[in-house]
Amino acid sequence: MKITAIKTFPIWIGHRNQFILKIETDEGIQGWGEAGVSGRELAVEGAARHYREFLIGKDPMRIGALWQEMYRSQYFEGGRALTGAISAIDIALHDVVARKLGVPVYQLLGGAHRHTVPGFVTSTSLDGPKVVEDAKRLVADGWEAIRFVPGHTDKGGDADLFEPRESVGITAEWIIKVREAVGFGPVLGIDYHHRLNVAETASFCQRLPSGTLDFLEEPIRDECPDAYAALRQMTPVPFAIGEEFASKWQFVPYIEQGLTNFARIDVCNVGGPTTNRHGLPRARGHFTCGVSGNDFVVCIEGIQPPDSDA
Ligand SMILES: [Mg+2]
């Protein structure tokens, strides 16, 4: 079997860009993949064009070797655009090989481990009584883990203006009320999308009574593990970090220094299932939870709460 075409589809899906890629073969078998570098989909498409010239004519069954050659065959290795493209190609190659062998993709990854996968749902922003009612409804629907959007107001008249200090205050106020309303059963988290600095994050966490928050996702940017190490000394709140990482190597200091408690491994960014098979065991070796990134999850249609009858 040989690869005959790599086709790319950078598309707008209503609220953000998404990058889809299709591999075609001379046997008529096709495979689909996705990159997760949202908002940089044209850069990913350019990277995929580089790889297209290399991949056409190659045997798609050699997934691991092709991954190594894509990542290492030129002087400049890695980076989000390149590994986004490699991720989409690697996912599509797994699709092709699974179809060729007549097995589900999970069979290529070690076989089924479980029949259900626990998930979390993302609620509304922490800025008023609506979020409390929303959280109570989600718990009643059966969700056992809820992630919230930080609150902020458009006090300055500009809805796009984000004031970190203002957000810290309003978000702390309403996550405390949510915890009081739903009790200690559900897992509660907040994704700050790296919009705070170290001092702002510490101030936020220190406003919360112990037990309020089960995880704080990416409060600061990830370029400097030492910044997270400093933050780790200032709060015991568990961190969820890694969604922006473009390689398994970026996870190393975060896992080995205990900086991420929930490794947010996004298979669409980190290099596809080939990388994930290496990165996730490393996290597990340190008893760090692996939490798949949302780009892969949105591909699964019909996600339902754990106790749903639907
Ligand atoms: Mg996130």
Short description:
The chain is built from eleven helices and ten strands.
The name of the CATH superfamily of the largest domain reads Enolase-like C-terminal domain
Q: β content, as a range?
A: 15-25%
What is the global morphology? elongated
- In angstroms, what is the radius of gyration? 21 Å
How is the main sheet built? 7 strands, parallel
CATH architecture name of the largest domain: Alpha-Beta Barrel
Tally the helices: what do you get? Answer: 11
**Can you list the ligands bound to this structure?**
magnesium ion
Describe this structure in words.
Helix 2 (63-72) runs antiparallel to helix 3 (80-101) and helix 6 (164-182) runs parallel beside helix 7 (198-206). The model is unreliable at 294-310 (pLDDT under 50). The protein has helices spanning 41-55, 63-72, 80-101, 105-108, 129-140, 164-182, 198-206, 225-232, 248-256, 273-285, 294-297; strands at residues 3-12, 17-25, 30-35, 121-125, 145-149, 187-191, 215-217, 239-241, 262-263, 289-290. The protein has 310 residues and is an alpha/beta fold. 40% of the residues lie in helices and 16% in strands. Residues 191, 217-218, 243 line the site of magnesium ion.
